[in-house]
Fold:
Amino acid sequence: MMKLDSLIHGALLRLPPETAHDLGLALLRIMPPLSFVSDENVKVKTRFGILNNPVGLAGGFDKTGKCIRQLEKLGFGYLVVGTVTRDARKGNKRPRILRRPDEFSLVNAMGFPNPGIKQFLKNVKHNKPRSTPTVISISDEKIENLIECYKMAQEVAWAIEINISSPNTPALRHYFQLEVFNDLVQRIKERRIIPTYLKLPPMTSSEEKSRIIDLAKAWWEAGLDGVTVVNTLPVIEPKLSTGTGGMSGRPLFSYMLNSVKTVYVLTDGELEINAVGGIFSGKDALLAIMNGATTVQLYTALVYRGPRIVAKILEELLIELKKNGLSSVEEARGIVLRQQ
Structure:
């Protein structure tokens, strides 16, 4: 079976990215659930429940809410679905995603294709997972629309991820003005009934780092639950229809780790941190956790390492815990910074 999986995965990597993505999800419908590590030492407590493991699927893989049942078969500790906006969007023209296999990265300029919040939530209700917690990622350029999405999505999700940092939607940048951001935080705080996380961009300059620290601090001081770091890195890519895109994958690892450390120290470890960006192995996952992450998220690694990625990472994670003299993921969180 593993050989067949490898052959199918190799064939998918030879197809255009969006074609491969759609075909892969279709194949998941007929695939039986994969076996995966079940061990008390990889369980982790979060604001939205105790997870069987700390490995989540990052937002963007299921843009419609129709694929939750299929993705649950892969063994993730939780799933982030979306990003979804109030109104339906077709997204940018194709080509809008490409692989950079030499550096194990992807560059996308998707532009939030989604069916709109009402249809999306119908899809999620129809495709509810059997047991895996589902986080819904939401966004919108207009604050009123974003809050409308927030109120509706809370009725269905285990938690919410607010995505105001996608580099493919420049109009979102107004949220990074402190006055606008504080207004958003206040509105979210007033309406919050389930755990809520803020997705932040990579710190690409001292000015950007200062701005992101201000946002994380305001989020923390408002009593909100956590952050997801980091979103994709803006890059120029002439092969995409837009000429630019957001890069994910291995090159983001150092940006992610820097953000994890920064937020952990800033908030005394009180904010939960979901680390995303360049995590391809159990060693990568443990390094993020030891530097303050509560959970980790994958997207690009799933593309390059295939459908058994979660099982592989959990097996590697248990080995790495033992190597580092640690008994559990919970014990590992922030240990590097606590020992300094």
